[in-house]
Amino acid sequence: MIAVAHVSDLHLGAHDPAAAAGLVADVVAAGPDLTVVTGDSTMRARTREFRQARTLLGRLPRPLLVVTGNHDLPLLSWRRVLDPYGRYRSWICDELDPVRRIPGLTALGLQSMPRWRWKNGRLTHRQAGLAARALGEAPAGDVRVLALHHPPSAGWLPGWRRVVRAGRPDLVLAGHTHLPRVLAGDGCTLVVAGTATSHRTRGVPHSWSLITVSGGLFAVEERYLDGGGWYTGRTTKVPRLSAAAS
């Protein structure tokens, strides 16, 4: 069995201190084999927010895969044009399209937030080639995981199908909407994490998702926060759809 912790939308700088205080302990207690953070580690990409983000991320279980979100780029600043990813690379991770490999699983993170867009994302031909190499050539039987900030729906992610055809992921992890959900389609399972620590909860409690892979089945356990601490809410089980599972 392989366990993946999926966290998104920290928005440090505009976060709930109680949620941030307990998140790390709850993820550590789950003992994941891989921790994935799908963007928006900061609220406005300010240095003090990145400092907070690095402290929190530094306490999460390793190996750790982190990608950028739209809030991790400066909003109204010259940096948006000349150095949009500079602070992220200095404080969080120098890799914008990181790859992590553990026994039985290959994960690729893609930077889906171009500097010229304010909210919606985009994937490029170059990233499709990277997906083909990192995921398409993963060892036979590996669970292939693609992590990015923008979910492939509602026009948020041009270039999505090109990347899926190239990499053939089994599991896609995303954030951005602040609403946890599990969907199947395009030959893969999409898991969108809810709001981990941000004040932007969209009517749903703070949450993160623990995904376990056992044989040909994904089990997605959503962990929610209330006054008594973190607890297991909805659990969704879906079959692994790719041919690699057969």
Describe the structure.
- The structure is a single chain.
- The chain is an alpha/beta fold and 246 residues long.
- The chain has one domain (2-245): Purple Acid Phosphatase, chain A, domain 2 (4-Layer Sandwich).
- It is 22% helix and 29% strand.
- It contains six helices and twelve strands.
- It has helices spanning 17-30, 47-57, 79-82, 86-91, 125-134, 160-167; strands spanning 2-7, 34-38, 64-67, 99-102, 105-109, 143-147, 171-174, 181-185, 188-192, 207-214, 217-226, 229-239.
- The strands form two sheets. A six-stranded mixed sheet has the order 3-2-1-10-11-12. A six-stranded mixed sheet has the order 4-5-6-7-9-8, with no helix packed on it.
- A hairpin with a 2-residue loop joins strand 8 (181-185) and strand 9 (188-192).
- The chain is globular.
- The mean pLDDT is 91.
- Belongs to the cyclic nucleotide phosphodiesterase class-III family.
- Keywords: Hydrolase, Iron, Metal-binding.
- Pfam families: Metallophos.
- This is Metallophosphoesterase.
- Residues 4-179 form the Calcineurin-like phosphoesterase domain.
